[in-house]
C-alpha cells in the first residue's frame, strides 16, 4: 500500500473559505487525514458561492480547495457536539482555525485549553490582521489587497486600483501556514521524551507585506513608494508584455545575456550593439524608447512565431493565454494539470515526490 509523506497525521480543520482550506488540502494531498468541521446544515461559506457548479451540484469554489477531506457537522455551542470536537482534537496532530481572534477561546477551544488535553497538538490560527489591535477587522482578501498595498501597484493606472484576479493573498497565506505547520511537526518530533506542540499564528496582512518582496524592500530601505506600471517591471527591461501581429507576447529578459539572445531571436542584433542598451540600468532608463523598437519589430509576425524563436534562443517568453489556453499549454508540456476524482475534475497539486507522490483519493466531501 502506497503511503504519503504525511500518512498517519490527523488534522482537525476548523477553517473555512480559502486560506485555511487551501493549506489543509495540501496536507491532505500529502497523506494526512483531514477532518473538516462544519456548521450544521450550512457548512463552509463557499458551499454556496456559485454559480458555477460541478455536475453534481457542488460549488466549484468549494471544490477547488476541499478534495481528500472528510466532513463532520458540529455545533460548537452544543454540549454533545463540543464533546465530539474534543474527542477529535485529542487524537489530532494539527488543528487549523480561522475564526476571528478570541472566538475559539470563548467557545472553549483556545490553545491553552486544548494544549492541556493534547500537549502534542500543533494549533494554527489564521486571521486577517492579527490577534492584537486588528482583531476586530474582518479579513477578506479584497480588503487585505487594498490596505496591504498590493492593489496600489496592480493595474496600469493610479486612478483605478486593481486587485489580482484571484484571492492571491489567501493562497499565499495558506502556503505560509502549511510551511509553518510542517516546521512545527519537525520540531515536535525532535524533542526527546515527549512530543511538544505549539501555537502558530499567521495573518493575511503580514503575508501580503512579506509577499511584496522587492517592492517592500525598496520602500523600507530607500523610501521608494512603488506605483502601478501595468506589465512593466520597475527594475528590469525588457520585462513586460508587447503587442505582436496577432496578440501579445510576455518577455522576461532578466539579464544582459538574455537581452542579447532576445535581440537575436527577433533579428534585431543592432539593439544589443547599441551602447545605450548595453546594461540593464541603461535599458531601464530608456525603457519607453526600447519598447517602441521591440514592438515595431514584433508587429511584423505572430506571437506563436516569436515564442518559437525565443524558445530556440533560450529566452523566457510566451503568449498571453486565457485560462483555457493555459491548461491546454500545460497539457502539451506533459504536466498533467487536471485530475479526475470520481467525476469531479480538480487542478493537480504542483508538488512531485519521487518516493511518496501526492494522491487524489476523494473529491470535495458532502456536508457531514
Walkthrough of the structure:
It is a single chain. The chain is α/β, with parallel strands linked by helices and 368 residues long. It is 38% helix and 14% strand. The protein is built from 15 helices and eleven strands. Strands 3-2-1-4-5-6 form a six-stranded parallel sheet, sandwiched between helices. The radius of gyration is 24 Å and the shape is elongated.
Structural class: alpha/beta
Query: What portion of residues belong to β-strands?
Result: 5-15%
- Please state the CA-atom Rg, rounded to the nearest Å: 24 Å
Task: Give the strand line-up of the largest sheet.
Answer: 3-2-1-4-5-6
The helix content, as a percent range, equals 25-40%
Q: Indicate the overall shape.
A: elongated
What is the string of SSEs from the N terminus onward? EHEHEHEHHEHHEHHEEHHHHHEHEE
Spatial gap, N to C terminus? 27 Å
Query: Would you count the extended β strands for me?
Result: 11
Kindly state the mean pLDDT as a whole number?
A: 95
What's this, in brief?
This protein is of the alpha/beta class and about 375 residues long. The protein contains 15 helices and eleven strands. It is elongated.
